[in-house]
Amino acid sequence: MKISLDTQVRDIAAEMPGAAELFRQAGISFCCGGKMPLAEAADAQGLKPDTLLAQLMALQEAANRDAPSETSALIDHLLERYHETHRRELESLIPLAQRVETVHGDHEEAPLGLTAASIALYDELDPHMQKEEQVLFPLMREGNASALAAPLAIMRQDHENSTNLLRGIEHASHGLNLPEGACGSWTALYTGVRKLGGDLVAHIHLEETVLFPRFDGQAA
Question: How many other CB atoms are there within 10 angstroms of residue 39's CB atom?
């Protein structure tokens, strides 16, 4: 992702690994107020825009540097680090979100809609990962570049859909800001959702900026 001081913080948080947590630590909202340009968001928090931009660029460089250089090894990394992790975590987070909504539904900061948003993400993400596991990745391992144009286009659209659903989760959880006195379940829920979101952004980033471009020029 190419970013500048004019890039909206919501787009940076959705596409750059580690950016969401950096913004949270800096007090920058990328949920409801996320259409603000990076420079304006930095100024609002008394931060130097150029310094914040440099920190974001360092995060991106670190994410790319840590990716395995060999394609088959990168695919193995994606499968082992992200695919099964996403499934396992969503399967535990969905009932947890349902519990928190049920018990704390009358709280003004309750994450109403988070269960539905999490289910929607699972329903989008699981078939997407199956298509990668059963179609895209085998073609890549075989070096069958001529058959990759259509699958790559579908995967990129799926990524956009997942990114939009992740924004819905961020919105339903009020930017993952825990209210004072939040119970253990609520705290565990937001901790899990924060990790899931960070992992998913990193997962998509590796595919979009490292893996897929290796085949773009070859696909016919």
Answer: 18
Distance (Å, rounded) from C-alpha 7 to C-alpha 49? 12
Query: Is residue 41 within 8 Å of 28, Cβ to Cβ?
Result: yes
Q: Which residue, chain included where needed, has tokens 């825990």?
A: 178
- pTM to 2 decimal places: 0.86
Distance CA 155, CA 162 (A): 10
**55, 71, 95 from 102: Cα distances, Å:** 40, 45, 10
Q: Closest Cα to residue 33, out of 139, 157, 171?
A: 171
pLDDT digits (tens, 9 = 90+) for 100-157: 999 999 999 999 999 999 999 999 999 999 999 999 999 999 988 788 999 999 999 9
Sketch the domain layout of the chain as residue ranges.
9-65, 71-216
Give the three-state DSSP class for 143: coil
Kindly state the tokens that stand for 178.
């825990």
Residues, the chain = 220
> Residues 110, 104: contact at Cβ < 8 Å?
yes
- Among 197, 187, 194, 188, residue whose Cα is nearest residue 166: 197
In this structure, what token pair is assigned to residue 105? 């539904």
State how far the Cα of 210 lies from the Cα of 61, in Å rounded to an integer.
11
Q: Which pLDDT belongs to residue 217? A: 67
